[in-house]
Design a protein that fits this description.
- This protein is of the alpha+beta class.
- The chain has 2 domains: 160 residues; 257 residues, no CATH class.
- 32% of the residues lie in helices and 9% in strands.
- The chain contains 8 helices and 9 strands.
- The strands form 3 sheets. A 5-stranded antiparallel beta sheet has the order 3-4-5-6-9. Strands 1-2 form a two-stranded antiparallel sheet. A two-stranded antiparallel ribbon has the order 7-8.
- The longest helix has 26 residues.
- The protein is elongated, with a radius of gyration of 27 Å.
- The protein starts with 19 loop residues before the first helix and ends in a 38-residue tail after the last strand.
Length: 438
């Protein structure tokens, strides 16, 4: 008998509504992926575009997943399959090449447990959505066949997906990211992620609070204006870098006393001499020009004549000055020392070993004007579209004269982070970062 409440009862098997079991499991999988991406929103809050992208993706996966649990329809299944497929493809691109048009995702990252699980759940959602619209003659996939055994299997699968999703949400809380390749930890800070670094993990930087290693020296700094420091042999817990206090970059395994001394002396000299450029107008009068990137939160003033002069790592002749533009005012916060044209990341001086890291910018597009200004961005190593042009990507390094979450030699984040040497892990010296250490 056909009733108004059962419009499908007279339809042939090939005309029946999409099958129930795969649609429901697809909904649960999509909900799980969406929940993990909800967690990712907060973890990427420092990159607005990334946060928005994850929020939109989470909203879609949660919304579609909820609908898939209670509604059936070919159009709904197709939308879910396409949407989750886009999420999977985006994940693959982000992990292999980076997504250049989304701030915070422009550099490829290593696969981590949480994002890998989210991609797997999205894949299951795609498979389930597709299976839900195959001919209904595959009766084993309908909820009204198979009896209690089939129902139990389906329930078990759904519960398993929920449990795995919860585990993924917890794991996402320890997610690392930095606009660069990295391992389990030791990443760009400022995002609330876990930056602890187990010794011997192979990423080239140790963030332990006390190493017990004989190759790291404790530092007691002298007068910052002279840059003199005396080093003992005892290992001590690392201290946060505070420009108003004696400089001590001790407590990091693998850093020799000589490397520690060189890095501390460079900071001391920069602290003493760089403030002469605090007024950007004074800098402009001496040949510095803005590259017009202040909308990022930091504005770089470059003295192009200084790049190929005889001075290197010299705060009296810094190649670039970094001003914070927070609050609509320019505040000098860092020097960005640059090597001469033609130098590569294989030729950088050893300033501080694991305490320091050089980077380049090979994805910025400059105007053909003199002086040039940044007017676009492209993929790493890609050619800019005329009339914009690429400049020779010389190695550079920051020295901060204010506290920074990633220590005194931290690179910027997002587009400003640049590209590091292949095989290296993005440096974040949380051992000496603001608000950490002893």
């Amino acid at each position: 008998m056909v009733t108004a409440l059962d419009p499908q009862s007279s339809a042939s098997p090939s005309q029946q509504a999409p099958t129930v079991v795969p649609a429901g499991l697809a909904g649960v999988a999509s909900l799980g992926a969406g929940a993990i991406h909800c967690t990712a929103v907060g973890l990427h809050a420092e990159h607005r575009q990334s946060a928005i992208a994850f929020a939109l993706l989470a909203a879609f996966q949660l919304g579609w997943g909820a609908l898939a649990l209670f509604r059936r329809g070919r159009l709904l299944a197709i939308v879910g399959a396409v949407g989750n497929a886009v999420a999977v493809v985006g994940w693959v691109v982000a992990k292999t090449n980076g997504i250049g048009f989304i701030d915070g995702l422009e550099t490829a990252e290593g696969i981590q447990w949480a994002d890998g699980l989210a991609a797997l759940l999205a894949t299951l959602a795609v498979v389930g959505a597709v299976l839900s619209i195959v001919p209904a003659s595959m009766g084993w996939m309908r909820s009204d066949t198979g009896g209690p055994v089939m129902s139990g299997v389906v329930t078990g699968l759904a519960v398993g997906l929920v449990v795995v999703s919860v585990v993924g949400m917890v794991a996402a809380g320890g997610h690392d990211h930095a606009g660069g390749h990295h391992g389990a930890t030791d990443v760009v800070a400022g995002d609330g992620h876990d930056h602890s670094q187990p010794e011997g993990s192979g990423d080239g930087h140790d963030h332990g609070q006390s190493t017990g290693s004989g190759d790291s020296a404790a530092a007691t700094s002298g007068d910052a204006s002279t840059g003199g420091h005396a080093h003992g042999g005892a290992v001590v817990p690392p201290k946060a870098y505070d420009p108003t206090k004696p400089i001590d970059l001790g407590g990091v395994s693998g850093v020799t006393p000589e490397q520690q001394a060189r890095s501390e002396n460079l900071i001391a000299l920069t602290l003493a001499r760089l403030p002469q450029w605090s007024d950007y107008r004074t800098a402009e009068a001496k040949g510095f020009n803005s590259i017009r990137d202040g909308r990022t939160g930091y504005e770089h003033f470059v003295n192009w004549a200084y790049i190929n002069d005889e001075h290197t790592l010299d705060p009296d002749h810094p190649e670039s000055l970094v001003f914070s533009t927070a609050g609509g005012k320019r505040k000098l916060v860092s020097a960005m020392y640059m090597l001469p044209t033609g130098k590569t990341l294989d030729e950088v001086p050893d300033v501080g070993g694991k305490l320091t890291q050089w980077h380049i910018h090979d994805n910025l597009c400059f105007t053909p004007t003199d002086p040039p200004v940044v007017a676009g961005i492209t993929g790493s190593g890609a050619k800019c579209r005329a009339p914009l042009r690429n400049l020779d990507p010389v190695p550079m390094i920051h020295v901060w004269i204010v506290s920074h979450p990633c220590g005194p030699f931290a690179a910027l984040e997002g587009v400003g982070a640049g590209q590091i040497k292949a095989g290296e892990t993005r440096l974040c010296d949380t051992a000496h970062g603001a608000g950490t250490g002893t």
